[in-house]
Design brief:
Layout lengths: L1 E5 L1 H5 L2 H12 L5 E5 L2 H9 L5 E4 L8 E16 L11 H6 L1 E5 L3 H13 L5 E6 L2 H9 L5 E4 L10 E5 L6 E9 H9 L2
Parallel strand pairs: 1-2, 1-3, 5-6
Antiparallel strand pairs: 3-9, 4-7, 4-8, 4-9
Length: about 190
């Protein structure tokens, strides 16, 4: 039996479905337990021995864990297809004047986003905060504002939403595979 924790990005990018298909092909009789949880909860569960592998947004701190970056993807700007921003150059003044739809995140992730915007020369004017990417995309489609989303979300964007490159924003979404050092040693000794 293997217990795997994951964040939504692991599904949206295809990382977890691909890994599960490969694992089932190599070990058809293996029992796989899945747990959708925040990165912080998953790290605690790995440390407690309740998860064998966690797919998290950030590399955890501490020497007791083995972490490997599995994926890094840029953020894109989701804009309504009919809006001026769908074609206008994305300069700091334009980005600073636009109403933003923010996706709720950890304090650390929110601070990274705000810092990246400041480094790009603007302060996002948050019009509304939502719980998930699907809600952000729906509000962008409705013309409420713009949203910075991981590139993988383009696959879920409604037809009325354009995902534009946001090169001036030095921000990426990462996915990490995390295991306990103890578990990693056990796995290596069985090979």
């Amino acid at each position: 039996r293997i217990a795997v924790g994951f964040v939504g990005t692991a599904l949206a990018t295809g990382v977890l479905p691909g890994a599960l298909r490969a694992l089932r092909a190599r070990h058809p009789d293996i029992a796989i337990g899945l747990r959708h949880a925040t990165s912080e909860v998953q790290v605690a569960l790995v440390r407690a021995g309740e998860l064998d592998v966690a797919l998290t947004h950030a590399r955890p701190t501490g020497r007791d864990l083995d972490a490997t970056r599995v994926l890094e993807q840029p953020y894109r700007l989701a804009v309504a297809r009919g809006s001026a921003l769908a074609k206008k150059p994305l300069v700091p003044r334009v980005l600073g004047d636009a109403p933003w739809i923010a996706v709720r995140a950890s304090e650390r992730t929110r601070a990274r986003w705000i810092d990246a915007c400041a480094a790009a020369g603007f302060v996002p004017q948050v019009a509304v905060e939502v719980a998930d990417y699907a809600s952000a995309l729906a509000l962008v489609d409705a013309g409420v504002g713009v949203a910075a989303l991981p590139a993988s979300q383009a696959a879920f964007a409604p037809r009325g939403v354009v995902m534009r490159a946001l090169d001036q924003l030095e921000l990426s979404s990462e996915l990490w595979a995390v295991r306990s050092e103890e578990h990693t040693s056990e796995l290596q000794s069985h090979h």
